[in-house]
Amino acid sequence: MLDDLYRLTPSAWRHHQFIALVGKPNCGKSFFQGLISLLVGGRSADPYLSMVGKSNFNEEIAESEHLMMEDKHALRDSKSRAAFGTAIKQLTVTSQTAIHGKGKKMFSAPAFRRLSFSVNEDADYITALPMLDDSIGDKVMLFKCAKAHMLPEWTENKARFNRELPAFTHHLLHEFKIPEALRHDRFGVVHYHSPEVVELLQQFEPHIRFREALDGTLFRDGDEPVTRKTAAEIQAELINGPFGQYVRPLVSYPTACGQLLAKCQKEDPERFKDTKSKGIRRWTNPRASRR
């Protein structure tokens, strides 16, 4: 990160990773984000609304090296999470930014940036994070955070860390070497996903909740005979079943059910199978997992 910042050569900037800090409230996540801001020059902006398509203007974002987000106003519907994931993929692997100030002409320019997002670890907040599929997993760092033993006064802690930042910056730039096993040609360092955070995310991923609804609707009395149904037919059964209220947000657009079935198939191809005849795709009635 600091190598690229001090190099001031956009064509030589490497791709980077989105940092997600997950932990209990008041454990120091935002404090840590503030230190990242200081490391890269002190400027920060919240790009979240722009990343989920709720704002068309981003001049302040383009002027800030640290794009710092918190979960306070994050959206948790599947469409917003998907848009957030797409924006992360774009912002972590490109340096060019389309800059648009309100009432001004849009233009493109290279912009140095690093992204961080702090989120509480309970279900109401962690579902703001995007789904970690193959296209985004290596672009995200997931860290589990816990409260450290520090001085009782926040201002004293901040002053102490601020005093150490110049020496820490020198250490990172001139002394520290990334271990060979952790090096990555594209991002500089291999991504890390905290197993605890991954487990939390999996509990609330849409396709996992979708599978739970399938089991509770189609197989509540045990395995049923295998039949072939279209995604629309499966969706209708789910919506009209005991988990209808639970399923509706997951299938809020026409192709959602088919996409969720495809996601389930990728993870469990033995259970989820499909065939296509005369342009119509039908799914083998997904069997419940044997218990």
In short:
With 291 residues, the protein is an alpha/beta fold.
How would you sum up this structure, described in words?
There is one protein chain. The protein is elongated and about 65 Å long. It is built from twelve helices and twelve strands. Strand 11 (274-277) and strand 12 (280-284) form a beta hairpin. 24% of the residues are buried. The chain is of the alpha/beta class. The strands form four sheets. It has a five-stranded parallel sheet, sandwiched between helices. It has a three-stranded antiparallel sheet with strand order 10-12-11. The protein has two domains: 2-194, Rossmann fold, CATH 3.40.50; 205-284.
The rounded Rg comes to: 22 Å
Structural class estimated from helices and strands: alpha/beta
Overall geometry comes to elongated
Number of helices: 12
